[in-house]
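Translate sequence into structure tokens.
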Amino acid sequence: MTHDNGELDSLVRRRIRALRVAQGWSLEELATRANISQSTLSRIENGRRRLALDQLVTLARALDTSLDQLVETAADDVISHPMIDAAHGTMRWLLKAEPGMTVVRQRMTGPPPDNPARMRAHPGREWLVVLSGTAILLLGNRRLRIETNQAAEFPTMLPHAIGAEGGPCEVLGLFDRDARRGHQRAEEADRGNRSSP
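Result follows.
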């Protein structure tokens, strides 16, 4: 979907006002933060003043957003389809707005490994939420029980492993680029170990 200049102009003006109101700021407060006059800001929001790039950059900073987010339009490709890895019981989605970020849904049936040597450590961060069942997260020397609707976030440089407790569990995880690479290497190593005699 494309926007002509008039539609984009109107969208940006509405977005500036909506972000200001969402922060609970008056015109005066945002004008002060952006170092522009209150009347200029009012005319920008109401369409009586031309949108200048330098003012948009300043307003984006003052509103704690980026210029890209301030002027982005609705994308045609809103819906994503997962990449399915049946061998590991995972579905994976890439986040278009955050290159390198991946969302993974995984069903686990077995417990975490009982051998600490099978715990992985690699650069990155992970966040996960248990959708159903109970998961056990081994994190360094800790054993954490994560129930349905509870979440965990941790740096992946800590040795870690996850598994199910008392039956299958389903987990939804967010991985940054480094964490995803670490898991891909681990999966490749596991596949190599299974295929060797």
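Note: The two ends are 54 Å apart (CA to CA).
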